[in-house]
Amino acid sequence: MEILVCVKRVPDTAENEFELNSSGNDLDRDDLVYSVNEWDNYAVEEAIQIVDKVGGSVTVITVGDDESEEVLRREMAMGANHGILLTDDAFEGSDGKGIATILKAEVEKGSYDLILSGAQADEGAGQVGGMLAAMLDMPYASLVNKIEPGDGKIVVGREIEGGNQEMNEMDLPCVLSIQTGINEPRYVGIRGIRKVASVEIPEKSASDLGIDAASVGSEGALTKRVDYFVPDLGDGAEMLEGSTDEIIEKLIEKLKAKGGL
Amino acid sequence: MTHIYAYIPFSNGAAEDVAMEFSSAAKKIDEGAAVTAVLTGSGADLEKVAQEMTSLYAEVIKIDNADMAYPNAEVVRKALVAVLPTGAVLLVPHTTFGMDLGPGLSVRMDAAYAADIIDFEGMDATTLKGVRQELGGAVSTHVTIDVASGAVITIRPGAFAPVEGGAAGGCVIDKSGDAGDLSTNRKFLELVEAEVGDVDITKSDVLVSIGRGIEDEDNIEVAQELAEAMNAVVSCSRPIVDAKWLEKSRQVGTSGQTVKPKVYMAMGISGSFQHMGGVKGNPFIVAVNKNPKAPIFQVADVGIVEDILDFMPELAEAVNDL
Ligand SMILES: Cc1cc2nc3c(=O)[nH]c(=O)nc-3n(C[C@H](O)[C@H](O)[C@H](O)COP(=O)(O)OP(=O)(O)OC[C@H]3O[C@@H](n4cnc5c(N)ncnc54)[C@H](O)[C@@H]3O)c2cc1C
Ligand SMILES: Nc1ncnc2c1ncn2[C@@H]1O[C@H](COP(=O)(O)O)[C@@H](O)[C@H]1O
Question: Is the same domain home to B243 and B173?
Fold first, then answer.
């Protein structure tokens, strides 16, 4: 099975305290730690496991800048066979549809049986997979937490509210967005990264892909982020301060009052 | 005047709560907007919910088809594309169903897409301003949505105030005949219910809930000791279950359990809406997190900036000494 996995380089929520820049229109990105979108690791792991079972190859693809190459290499160190970087100044500021439009152009140059994305990325949108499917006129299922590959068809489980699972049978080729927990993504060590350090990763621009630059990027975007801000959500929590002993003393009083002890 | 359509999901003959939230969301888009509820499904359940919606919406469209008896988003999408007029602005809940339906629908309708909107700040000509969050709720953003050729907008459940059933005196319009060919390449097979675990976290008045801040499987013991001291039960966020450190039945959140404890101790949990969506009944929330900017501090009653691995054992000891 030929599998394409869409991956994105994102600020790591576990490693960063997010601050706004001085003009308040963007994050202060100077010291941000980036990594692969959490959901995408599960998608790549799933693709590798499917190929281990039924044969084929795994290609990882991203729309990004030069620095996005590192996430492709990381996923190749996990075991993906090929990487493709779609990069062009014209892609900057794309909304979900722009990203899907760019990915579609490259997908049509290949021949994939299965296309995987993460369920959502840093913006919490969960949109690119479903848009790509519609553009390619392929069936789609989101939040997939189980895949049983078959012949020309596959059975997938979608995780829905309450942890219940909705089983579906789908025709191939299709697009799936992958939910965390579907597998346990393998660990990638420095050695693994070193092994793929010199593998060639093709880069493609808007003109390579035959994309009209006006249909993507901020020019083509119908939905645009205009600023970042810190919401004023009333009082927020009462912060307990002092030494740990003092904090614990105050907390215990409150817990007693609220029925916690 | 904008014409807004609100897709109302229902199950077992009852509309989801968003039915009441969409009317106030629509008002925030455009005070004078005409709002039409749209329901898909089959048979008596559909008819019952459609009738109920006439008290909230002046117009209710129903699309009845046996293929939509179970809401397969691939089928529903086709029906909506066939029935909705071009340029429609459609509200859909940001749930597992909405996430399945919405993105592809916006492509098919050739319309804008905006996901997980939590507020609107008005419309200027055909540019709608919305509020959403990024990075697990760590930052908020304003977005502009160009609705000139329509839009599909998913709305976070619970984000807009519910409107109690008024007397809209609406009518039901049957558009079943317009749905067209609903065949798809994705067939619904069956529902598999979540496994029941050996502990029922929904029964406990006090939960010591751990998140990714627990850092390592071996540290779970520390949480268990605190829970024991407090006569509480250990629950957790999703990453702990994904890592297989605790069983799924202990997960709190939209894709886990809904809990209604008296006291909820969020230990090393950032406070994403999918997690907090499972914390109901307005409990007293204590958040301990080493990041003073963690979004959980916006929803907690009491916040403590500490390392849980140091804090939990000390708290357990102090409680044991009482
Ligand atoms: C469709 C869907 C459904 C979902 N359903 C659920 C659900 O049901 N339940 C759920 O929980 N999530 C769910 N999620 C995932 C959710 O979006 C978040 O990714 C998840 O809740 C984050 O868990 P967390 O807070 O434990 O981890 P993180 O967001 O990584 O937060 C960890 C926190 O711990 C703090 N921390 C780290 N180390 C320490 C330390 N030593 N001491 C103190 N603090 C520390 C960090 O500052 C951070 O704030 C769902 C996602 C999707 C897309
Ligand atoms: N720039 C990108 N390049 C490649 N894939 C992407 C990109 N942005 C999003 N995706 C894919 O779409 C998924 C969902 O992201 P989003 O729709 O942005 O929430 C991600 O997990 C990726 O698989």
Answer: no
